[in-house]
Amino acid sequence: MVALIIGHTKDKPGACNEMYDICEYKFNKQLVEDVARDLMVPYKIYIRTTLEALPGQVNKDRPTFAIEFHCNALNKKATGSETLYTNDKSKKLAESILDATSDVLGITNRGIKLINADDRGGYLLSHLTMPCIITEPFFIDNNSDYEVISERYEELVQALVFAIESYYDSTLEHD
Questions:
Q1: Interatomic CA distance for residues 133 and 136, integer angstroms
Q2: Which of 16, 65, 138, 162 has the fewest other C-beta atoms within 10 Å?
């Protein structure tokens, strides 16, 4: 089973794009639902109640791996895709998801970023027991990035589906 985690909450929606009136939570809730619609592997969608409770909820279900969906934000000018991970067991998953998103979007590949528990996003990743990453395919506060996502949204969904299924299948081959 694959854990698909929607970053942020309805009440704390994360970074926003004012021009397009969209925040991380709303965008990623739809993205996760659309990815799940096409997945041919078992999955469960997680919506955060509290950050502290989330790792226990996910760990209890013992998924093969977990992906938390976010969008980056900085200064309305930064651009690109990146993926965050915390250890070697998550590195290949991070590379796989980043390759899929950056290839289809055609925006700057900012690379995979090794983070620790104290870094942004580090709490969840450091408390999960399975390979886990945070995908940030674009900067939501950058209008140009958002326009690319809007134009290539369905391609992004299919790229994520393919990457998730491929990685999942590769984990079965090693069991």
A1: 10
A2: 162
